[in-house]
Amino acid sequence: IEVSRGAVDAMIGLYLNEAEIQFPEDAVKVTESQHRIMQIDSVVVSSKVTNSDFEFFGDIKNLPTPVRITLGDPIQEYLEQFKLRIEDGAKKDDQNIKKMKRDQKGVIITSTFNAMNWLEDPEYADMIEVSTEPIVSRSYFLAFSKKSKFSKQEIEQIWNQIAKNREDYVYPIKIFAKY
Question: Is-contact 28 139, C-beta < 8 A?
């Protein structure tokens, strides 16, 4: 909302209204935009205890339920078409992993970052399985307001610099480390 009103020049965004926001040209045409800041895969985390024979190979209809996602995750709209029981009340993924540990059922849809952290955490490592195939992969962009003080040429230069910097392994880690 702040970007569309012009209150800020730009923000890192995922699903934004094209009528109000400037995206890189390839943002809506390809799965992995060359101008993305980074690509984040969402994976399926399941319980080894109750879903020991479950492995995700892309068949969303057969996900064990409940499917836990965080509140406001844009994947919810996609998952609803499969008529799965979705729990979307958690504000953070850490709440979902605690619920799965307690209930010993269902799965969590989360970023690979969260899943890998849980695999390294002794509290969760032995109880979870993480899918190797992502359920979805999303590009994150620096999107500009159409009311931005930056010229179209300056915005293009910024996106091109992002494309160059993104190839540096440390660059996206520095940007998202605090999130």
Answer: no
Query: Structure tokens of 165?
Result: 């910097």
DSSP 3-state of 89? strand
The SS3 assignment for 52 reads coil
Q: Give the tokens for residue 128.
A: 């979870």
Q: Look up the pTM and report it.
A: 0.75
- Residue 157 φ then ψ, to 5°: -65, -40
Q: What is the dihedral of CA 135, 140, 144, 145, to 10 degrees?
A: 30
Structure tokens at 26: 């390839």
pLDDT tens figures, 32-60: 777 787 788 899 999 988 877 888 988 99
